[in-house]
């Protein structure tokens, strides 16, 4: 039997400095997404058993008094959102935010982001940073990206993600932003959530939306206009181990997701110093297209029929947005969204 050896494609030595900076920017973002939270938890516990124990004690006191801040709009720091670092991340893929219509800052909005992808790179770079020009494209709007509440329970890490405009993905947190008298708030929801990440395979266009009506109801209760958003290329930046429905791997992933609240896709792409394997995403373009707003009248107790009608209208508008723009981003004209 002939043993096959994997050939490693190393990065050339003469890579331009600009590309190295882009790789470094994305590398720190991937680490922040995958490893910073557990690192912060370990650090918090470790300090308690050293001469620096007072740091953890003082932080615990601060945490107690600041516990509800994530659910009350967080603590965005414009300085952090505008760092040059995020422009390097933008240029790595690159990522572009595409506007199709004005969003009147006299209203509040719920932006449904599709698809989730593996690490929602497009959603973060477009709506948590200023790198792709969100403030210029949509003047007067402030975006809030929803993230799993689990991450806001990690000491230190919670403060970092709040600085970028992230808030917990629960009804209380989103409703707090939308019910404030001040208008011009845009809540961004990756509607498919963690379960949709398990279907984030290159070349697939599965959208977990058919039974997702919570954000529709929230929009009606607060009179927030709905805006469909489709991010072309979001599923292309990582490969994932095949896990179709009915396989043992998918069963285990869905079981763990139901217990832990987070999905665990077995994804891979390239490394930092080589292109053959690793957790760094591929350099593939992401175009996040923001659709036209769907006007929503405020109704505190919408009927099931009203919810179904608005939900169907939203799916139709999302499908139309996809079909209208897919030709610009290399998607075959015969391909359509698959709502699951």
UniProtKB/TrEMBL annotation:
Protein name, entry field: Acyltransferase
GO terms, biological process: diacylglycerol biosynthetic process; triglyceride biosynthetic process
Keywords attached to this entry: Acyltransferase, Endoplasmic reticulum, Lipid biosynthesis, Lipid metabolism, Membrane, Transferase, Transmembrane, Transmembrane helix
Native species: Crenichthys baileyi (White River springfish)
Pfam families listed in its UniProt record: DAGAT
Lineage: Eukaryota, Metazoa, Chordata, Craniata, Vertebrata
InterPro entries assigned to the protein according to its UniProt record, in alphabetical order: DAGAT
Residues annotated as transmembrane: 29-62
The enzyme's E.C. designation: 2.3.1.-
Family designation: Belongs to the diacylglycerol acyltransferase family.
Domain of life assignment: Eukaryota
Annotated Gene Ontology cellular component terms: endoplasmic reticulum membrane
GO MF annotation: an example: 2-acylglycerol O-acyltransferase activity
Keyword Signal assigned: no
Membrane topology of the entry: Multi-pass membrane protein
Subcellular location: Endoplasmic reticulum membrane
């Amino acid at each position: 039997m002939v043993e096959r050896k994997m050939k490693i494609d190393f990065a050339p030595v003469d890579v331009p400095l600009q590309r190295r900076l882009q790789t470094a920017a994305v590398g720190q973002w991937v680490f922040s997404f995958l490893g910073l939270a557990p690192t912060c938890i370990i650090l918090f516990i470790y300090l308690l058993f050293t001469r620096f124990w007072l740091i953890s004690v003082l932080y615990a006191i601060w945490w107690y008094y600041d516990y509800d801040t994530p659910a009350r709009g967080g603590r965005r720091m414009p300085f952090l959102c505008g760092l040059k670092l995020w422009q390097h991340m933008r240029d790595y893929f690159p990522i572009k935010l595409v506007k199709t219509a004005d969003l009147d800052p006299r209203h509040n909005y719920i932006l449904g982001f599709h698809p989730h992808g593996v690490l929602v790179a497009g959603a973060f770079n477009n709506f948590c940073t200023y790198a792709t020009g969100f403030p210029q494209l949509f003047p007067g709007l402030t975006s809030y990206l929803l993230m799993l509440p689990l991450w806001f329970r990690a000491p230190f890490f919670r403060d970092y993600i709040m600085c970028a405009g992230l808030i917990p993905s629960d009804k209380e947190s989103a409703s707090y932003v939308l019910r404030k008298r001040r208008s011009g708030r845009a809540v961004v929801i990756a509607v498919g959530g963690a379960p949709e990440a398990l279907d984030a395979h290159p070349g697939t266009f599965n959208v977990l939306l058919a039974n997702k009506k919570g954000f529709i109801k929230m929009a009606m209760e607060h009179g927030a206009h709905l805006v469909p958003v489709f991010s072309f290329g979001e599923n292309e930046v990582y490969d994932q181990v095949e896990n179709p429905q009915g396989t043992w791997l998918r069963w285990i992933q869905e079981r763990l997701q139901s217990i832990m609240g987070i999905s665990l896709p077995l994804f891979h792409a390239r490394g930092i110093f080589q292109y053959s394997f690793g957790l760094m995403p591929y350099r593939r373009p992401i175009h996040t297209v923001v659709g036209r707003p769907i006007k929503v009248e405020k109704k505190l107790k919408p009927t099931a029929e009203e919810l179904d009608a608005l939900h169907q209208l939203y799916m139709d508008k999302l499908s139309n947005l996809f079909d209208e723009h897919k030709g610009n981003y290399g998607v075959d004209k015969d391909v359509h969204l698959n709502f699951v």
